[in-house]
Amino acid sequence: MIQFRRTSSDDTDFRELVALLDKDLALRDGDEHAFYAQFNKIQAIRNVIVCYEDSKPIGCGAFKEFEPGKVEIKRMYMLPEQRGKGTGLAILSQLEDWASELGYTTCVLETGKKQPEAISLYKKGGYSITQNYGQYAGVENSVCMRKEL
């Protein structure tokens, strides 16, 4: 049985999933990992979803305010054996619903060209590639996306 829990970045299950995410990204990004890691700190994130299957944490995602009316989706991760089942889209939908409840109208996110499954997930979720924003402007490996809620 799949369940979703709203929590914050203080959540132990979220922190354990993010540690697995960071290990995966370090392998994929190689020397570029340090650049991205500086923007992926998880202290004080108030909006986190942890997904459970039979009480076991299997995936997560978060958002934080990017600017008034807009959130940035952060720290999306699914255990490798759980991918391809639609649960990642469900986590994304939960995050979007929560952001909407709080009055946000737009989601933005950054992922990397070395995460093709993430790009595919976001496209399935209705996200469009947009110009790289902020610290990702001009970064060759970065793919920035957005969706109006």
Rg, Å, rounded? 14 Å
What about the largest sheet? 7 strands, mixed
**Beta strand count:** 7
User: How many individual helices?
Assistant: 4
Helix amount, in percent? 25-40%
- What is the topology, as strand order, of the major beta sheet? 1-2-3-4-5-7-6
Query: How much strand?
Result: 25-35%
Describe this structure as you would to a colleague:
This protein is α+β, with helices and mostly antiparallel strands and 149 residues long. Helices cover 32% and strands 34% of the residues. It has four helices and seven strands, in the order βααβββαβαββ. It has helices at 12-29, 33-37, 87-101, 116-124, and strands at residues 2-7, 47-53, 56-67, 70-78, 106-112, 128-130, 142-148. A seven-stranded mixed sheet has the order 1-2-3-4-5-7-6, with helices on both faces.
Element layout with pairings:
Blueprint: E1 2-7, H1 12-29, H2 33-37, E2 47-53, E3 56-67, E4 70-78, H3 87-101, E5 106-112, H4 116-124, E6 128-130, E7 142-148
Parallel strand pairs: 4-5
Antiparallel strand pairs: 1-2, 2-3, 3-4, 5-7, 6-7
Can you summarize this structure?
This protein is of the alpha+beta class. Strand 4 (70-78), helix 3 and strand 5 form a beta-alpha-beta unit. It is 32% helix and 34% strand.
Keywords:
about 150 residues, alpha+beta, seven-stranded mixed beta sheet, globular
